[in-house]
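A quick aside before the break. I want you to see a complete sequence-to-structure record at least once, exactly as it would be stored in a machine-readable document. Don't worry about memorizing anything.
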Amino acid sequence: MTIPPGLYEQVVNTGLQQELEALGPEFQAMLAQMDPAESHFILAQYVGQFLNGLLGSITGSDKLEKQIAACNSLIKSAAACIDDSAVDQATVAKGGQRLLEIFNPIFTRHTKPETPLSVSSLLTATSRDPSLVSQLKQEIMHADRIDILMSFIKWSGIRIIKDELEEFVAHGKLRVITTSYLGATDLKAIRYLLGLPNTNVKVSFDTKRTRLHAKAYIFHRNSGFGTAYVGSSNISNPAMTDGLEWNVKICQYETPHLWRKINATFETYQVAKDFEEIDANDLPRLDEALRQEKGTGNTDQENYLVFFDITPYPYQQEILDKLEAERALHNRTRNLVVAATGTGKTVIAAFDFKRISKDHNNCRLLFVVHREEILRQARAVFRNILRDQNFGELWVGKATPVHREQLFVSVQTLRSQKLWQQVPADFYDYIVIDETHHAPAGSYSELTSYFTPRILLGLTATPERADGEDILQYFDRRICAEIRLPDAINRKLLSPFQYFCITDSVDYSQLTWQRGRYVQHELERVLITGDHFRARLIVQKAREILLDVSRARGLCFCVNKRHASYMADQFQQHGIPSTALTADTPAEERKAAISRLKNVEINFLCVVDLFNEGVDIPEIDTIMFLRPTESLTIYLQQLGRGLRLCEGKAHLTVLDFIGQSHQKFNFEARFRALLGQTANRIEDEINTAFPSLPSGCVIEMEKEAQRYVLNNIRQALSHANKNQLVRRIASFLAETGLQPTLRNFITYHRLELDDIYRKGSWSRLCAKAGVKENFQDPDEVLLSKGLRRMCHHNSPWQLNKMIEGLQAL
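That is the input. The structure line, written in tokens, reads:
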């Protein structure tokens, strides 16, 4: 065998085809048909490689003439295939010359870059390469426009190219994007750039999320021979002169696809709200931001806020803008915002209320939460943003409101005190329902049916409910704005995760399933075993996967109090300091345990019915799912406890113990929630190592755990109830990018037609999902039953007769 085994992306020519046919029986060749959409690029690349070798083999004194003749012959032959009359313009002219420059001799000519404009190159700061600064100086003087994307800009770097920059901006446009991250940028350098004409500077002040590390110098030329240097060199003297830096020079002429991507990405940053355009008036703010990043600035947050207004993060402002547009342009005042745990849903509500209250004096607020624990937290957010430490009354426990005009209340208190009997329906101008996915519950019925506020705002991370109940009915059947978990991670608002699916020793498939969950006492029975086998497995995997379990700060989610105490005891016995917390744990004891976890005095908190909603411990770097979590909402809330950003935390580590599950347990929904929008089925994602995960995230599955998950997903839709199927249809376009047609739906989910028609006609299901107009047909029930019977016909003759009959109607 002359062709070695391995990976290829090679066009099969006649010679290669013969070698493939001669492969021994122990080898197989995987071939793929070229996509017509990109075949021109593939074939041009192949011909270019072949022609390079062919022309290089020509020798003799007339070598150049023969090479030109060969090129022109090839061009004419190719043009003849497509009848291109412009072929004469493309043939190489006699003499074998290249155009290097068109210039006006009146003006001074500058030295061209030593590295070519038509062939990419790599500068590695060795003695054999020109220095980066020398190339930048030459590139600047031959550019028509310049874009610079730079994490740090030092005066030591600016001052060695300032002469060239000053000459350039006399006729060309300069755009610079940078950041205040780490305080490494010199204020003097930015002040200088702002003083140049034809210069635009943008800065990211949000260094907790927008940590710009990229370095790129982009030189645009009207000739089509633009160049870009992408690599490790910031604008500083060491980086540009003698540092051990690598920089790739990318040429527009040679690699137009890379050139387009570089420019498209820069333009994306240019319009992103994370990067703010600044002028000389912003220098004091930048100075303070740089000092804060260095740790030498004013660290008294209260004093700091006196001088600088509190403003929403750019992603929060986008949501606020969408809310305003919904109301002003479309007159929709019942608005649902879907935002991942940790992105500041309450902050968004507070800024929105602040804007509304400016236009409506004495605007009355009702803020309703599902859990009493987060009432004070929510009121504190409103007070800080409104700059009114007297704003809002709590109605919880012994705290009784006096005026009730700005009221923060739990839904339990609202219901027990029958607030709807004490105030008119239109008493509140602005009502917020936090964790709105609870709205279909009976405890919310009076809230959603009685009150008629000017604005109703719903906040949730997960609008989808496991029971199929629809919360969009309260919000004009629309999601006004959303930032889901994958998008939040991609935008650096949340920490990336490394997720390990570990094969559990427990078989859950035969446990009783009631009201959308396992029966708790049966779970306890299989999770707490006398031989402690499962506990030893958990400890083993923690030691195996975590870098240093003694430095971990984690939450372990358990099924009940006994399970939590049991697991905390097991960790203790294996030398891993841990404690159990439940809803019955006194507040002071709970607070002390959290403090010990933060200080790494203990490594794990084994918890039950805690840390789902409204509790922030950014230091958490490990999550363990020690029980199957049936509710997608609770699962995402629990996962979210570890996704908060924290200095020194590179990622969250998740250990999920997965056993053979009940057929009604929904693995697909949880993995779908971790992915960005993709047309891939979840099975395909699993089998290809999750290519659609957010940036920096990984999911690793042990072999048996993967088999359990795949088997569960394959059975899921065929056992789905009608509401669940309707919900899948409603979200199909958003999840897959495909139109919700019957063919697309059953092909994507690999369903049989009977899986659809035993729950109703496709048209009726689509109408219920809101993807088709509602309709009335007196024969609907009869026709639906007939369509289901037709699904089981397999006689070609009968099917053809049915088609003929339908066509004749």
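Two observations worth writing down. The mean pLDDT is 87. Residues 416 and 538 are 43 Å apart (CA to CA). We'll return to this after the break.
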